[in-house]
UniProtKB/TrEMBL annotation, chain A:
The lineage of its organism: Bacteria, Bacillati, Actinomycetota, Actinomycetes, Geodermatophilales. SUPFAM superfamilies: Ribulose-phoshate binding barrel. HAMAP family: Trp_synth_alpha. This is Tryptophan synthase alpha chain. PANTHER family: TRYPTOPHAN SYNTHASE ALPHA CHAIN, CHLOROPLASTIC (PTHR43406:SF1), TRYPTOPHAN SYNTHASE, ALPHA CHAIN (PTHR43406). Its EC number is 4.2.1.20.
UniProtKB/TrEMBL annotation, chain B:
Tetramer of two alpha and two beta chains. The modification N6-(pyridoxal phosphate)lysine is found at residue 106. This is Tryptophan synthase beta chain. GO terms for cellular component: cytoplasm. Residues 1-20, 409-449 are annotated as: Disordered. It comes from the Bacteria. The lineage of its organism: Bacteria, Bacillati, Actinomycetota, Actinomycetes, Geodermatophilales. Belongs to the TrpB family. PROSITE patterns: TRP_SYNTHASE_BETA. The beta subunit is responsible for the synthesis of L-tryptophan from indole and L-serine. Its cofactor is pyridoxal 5'-phosphate. It comes from Geodermatophilus dictyosporus. Residues 72-396 form the Tryptophan synthase beta chain-like PALP domain. It catalyses: (1S,2R)-1-C-(indol-3-yl)glycerol 3-phosphate + L-serine = D-glyceraldehyde 3-phosphate + L-tryptophan + H2O. One of its GO terms (molecular function) is tryptophan synthase activity.
């Protein structure tokens, strides 16, 4: 029914959290970004968030902005994204697209859903689309049998947590801190509190993003979340020239982290 | 040729305006909230506080007193007869928002939002700015009310508008040059949103125009509608009739919504927004969002925007920093789609011709933004012919633009203004020697109706 929920459930059956890796398509080039995604899977990522480049990434910090800017200037579009989806599926991970709303709307919501499903994509995460505005996407994702992931935040009141979780399929994305993407020294208690509040209103898996960058943090978050989402740390491997090798090594470190002290109860 | 007609107040539509936006901030298919969930609580709080405040007599009184005693409202209406000689014989009235404290209409909105900030108990405000007028206004209100203030401004704009950067700093604000993307207003807004989502517990975002997520388009309109409310009464008082057309420049569109709103129910009054066409819409180097763009989502709302096939925002171009924005407020998109307002492009050259003309014929140096509206009046006046009555919102004064204008006109040690490329030659269709009543074959000469 839900490719994401199945994969996260499989990790849970192993007594661990799933590892979700984010990388944007087209940085440094389309081919190199696909090679990096494949390396992330080889290193141990269960799910790859395939980032759609966007000119105005209002939720992203400097690291992802810098990478995405390269892709935007190169004219990377949805056709390239769909190629990355196919490659990630072939590598054995679950591909899910991460996109600000306008590129999807411009491509055509129904067309996007149809083409994404045909490419083997599980669904999409939409950081600037709240369920209140998502009518066409709810319908299109239902019709194509796709997962759809919305975000909850520490500032969300309980009624919104419930409504947002209700609209999600696959998992609920808990944005751990108030702020933009980027690595942080500590993930903090806010993430754990948000996960607990979300679990109080839904049985769906809850994955945590924003701020996780190493194996220790992955281990810490993996103790209370169903999935650990890592973005900027992966992108930094490419920005600093360590290429697919660096991505593979980071994945291995994070994969070890989510398996440490396997205490997540099924 | 349209003949001018009297539009007495009783001809106003019965449908209570504003009938839009709806409860969730939609103007038809436009507007709404396309934001990270993290900001929804703050936007909900802001909406509730605004709705409570606007009906609170104590606030209404305090806001009115500030407008009167601090801004200097009501701003006057000035007839500009010598300028109007270049407008096909039409009569031209200017609504003088340039005479407000801080030099533009931006103060109207900022005082309202600063009072709101105090009411919700936040101590820090942030703002984006293009030309610097909104930044200066926000820094001013922050100084007045003891709030800490940070202004994001594209690095490119900090160069174009160095005077306003200095003004903001003198007023105690921190100005942060934004070096991402096109380094203009669009990117300043992105940075301000990033600051807001990070510091939302202590910080209020004082948005400068009728764009962005709900409630900003509604709230900014309500704080700016004083322009049209005053002007409508002033024109009726002095002329005994309404104008045939109301003109304003449109970047994000706050001064235009401000002057339009009171006239929306007056069906006989044409509402004309002038967009910045830069080098010309056909060149691709422009900021004419409605003329040359398509519907999409940018900065938290659905509206027209300049975008490519991948949905990437396209960089805009205009000599005017305040109009150099690839988006537009959702209410303008709605007014366009329902046919209540019309939007026309004005090139840099046409705007600068009007800039020079108003300066030399009336002793009023307009903001380059407002000069776009003046250029629109020159063209529309020729289309409508003698006896037409045009109301132009002069949204700001041009002190900040003196350097840009000096470069444009090649002023150095020379003592006389060269009117610039095209002026007083046969190449410009809007050249000043056209006789009254002549229709001018411009880009949209076929659209008059």
């Amino acid at each position: 029914m839900s490719a994401l929920e199945d994969r996260i459930g499989a990790a849970r059956a192993e007594g661990r959290a799933a590892l979700v890796a984010y990388l944007p398509v087209g940085h440094p080039t389309v081919e190199d970004s696909i090679a990096a995604m494949t390396a992330a899977v080889e290193g141990g990522a269960d799910v790859v968030e395939i980032g759609v480049p966007y000119s105005d990434p209002g939720m992203d910090g400097p690291v992802i902005q810098q990478a995405v800017d390269v892709a935007v200037r190169a004219g990377v579009g949805m056709r390239d994204v769909l190629r990355a989806v196919e490659a990630v599926a072939a590598a054995g991970a679950v591909p899910v697209v991460m996109s600000y709303w306008n590129p999807i709307e411009r491509y055509g919501v129904e067309r996007f859903a149809t083409d994404l499903a045909a490419a083997g994509g599980a669904g999409a995460i939409t950081p600037d689309l709240i369920p209140d505005e998502a009518g066409p996407w709810l319908a299109a994702s239902d019709a194509a049998g796709l997962d759809r992931v919305f975000l909850v935040a520490p500032s969300s009141i309980d009624a919104r947590l419930r409504a947002t979780a209700e609209a999600c399929r696959g998992f609920v994305y808990a944005a751990s801190t108030m702020g933009v993407t980027g690595t942080r020294a500590t993930v903090g208690d806010a993430a754990e509190r948000l996960v607990a509040r979300t679990r109080a209103v839904t049985d769906k898996p809850v994955c945590v993003g924003l701020g996780v960058s190493d194996g220790d943090q992955a281990a810490e978050v993996g103790r209370f979340a169903d999935g650990v989402i890592v973005g900027s740390a992966y992108v930094r491997e490419l920005l600093e020239g360590r290429g697919p090798e660096g991505v593979r090594a980071l994945s291995a470190q994070l994969a070890e982290g989510v398996r440490r002290r396997s205490t997540v109860s099924p | 040729m349209t003949t001018s007609a009297v539009h007495p107040p009783e001809q106003r539509l019965e449908s209570a305006h504003p009938a839009w936006p709806d409860d969730t901030g939609h103007f038809g298919v436009f507007g709404g909230r396309f934001v990270p969930e993290a900001l929804v609580a703050a936007l909900d709080d802001l909406t509730a506080a605004f709705e409570a405040m606007r009906v609170d007599p104590a606030f209404v009184e305090e806001f009115a007193a500030l407008q009167r005693d601090y801004t200097g409202r009501p701003s006057p209406v000035t007839e500009v007869s010598r300028f109007a000689e270049h407008c096909g014989g039409a009569r031209v009235l200017l609504k003088r928002e340039d005479l407000n404290h801080t030099g533009s209409h931006k103060i109207n909105n900022v005082l309202g939002q600063a009072l709101l900030t105090r009411r919700i108990g936040k101590q820090r405000v942030i703002a984006e700015t293009g030309a610097g007028q909104h930044g200066v206004a926000t820094a001013t209100a922050a100084a007045l009310m003891g709030l800490s203030c940070t202004v994001y401004m594209g690095e490119e704009d900090t160069r174009r508008q160095a005077l306003n950067v200095a003004r903001m700093r003198l007023l105690g604000a921190e100005v942060i040059p934004v070096t991402t993307g096109s380094r203009t207003l669009k990117d300043a807004i992105n940075e301000a949103f990033r600051d807001w989502v990070t510091n939302v517990e202590t910080t209020n975002y004082v948005f400068g125009t009728v764009a962005g997520p709900h409630p900003f388009p509604l709230m900014v309109r309500e704080f700016q509608r004083v322009i049209g409310d005053e002007a409508r009464a002033q024109v009726l008082e002095r002329e005994g009739r309404l104008p045939d057309a109301v003109l304003a420049c449109v970047g994000g569109g706050s001064n235009a919504i401000g002057v339009f709103t009171a006239f929306v129910p007056d069906e006989g009054v044409r509402l004309v927004g002038l967009e910045a066409a830069g080098d010309g819409v056909e060149t691709g180097r422009h900021a004419a969002t409605i003329t040359g763009g398509s519907p999409g989502v940018l900065h938290g709302a659905r509206s027209y925007l300049l975008q490519d096939d991948n949905g990437q925002t396209v960089e805009s171009h205009s000599i005017s920093a305040g109009l150099d924005y690839p988006g537009v407020g959702p209410e303008h998109s709605y007014l366009h789609d329902i046919g209540r307002a019309e939007y026309r492009p004005v090139t840099d050259a046409e705007a600068m011709e009007a800039f020079a003309l108003l300066s030399r014929t009336e002793g009023i140096i307009p903001a380059i933004e407002s000069a776009h509206a003046l250029a629109g009046a020159m063209r529309l006046g020729r289309e409508l012919g003698p006896d037409a009555l045009l109301l132009v919102n002069l949204s700001g004064r041009g002190d900040k633009d003196v350097e840009t204008a000096s470069r444009w006109f090649g002023l150095g040690d020379r003592t006389e203004v060269d009117p610039g490329p095209g002026m007083d030659t046969d190449q410009q269709p809007t050249e000043g020697a056209v006789t009254a009543g002549d229709a001018v074959p411009g880009q949209d000469a076929g659209s008059q109706s």
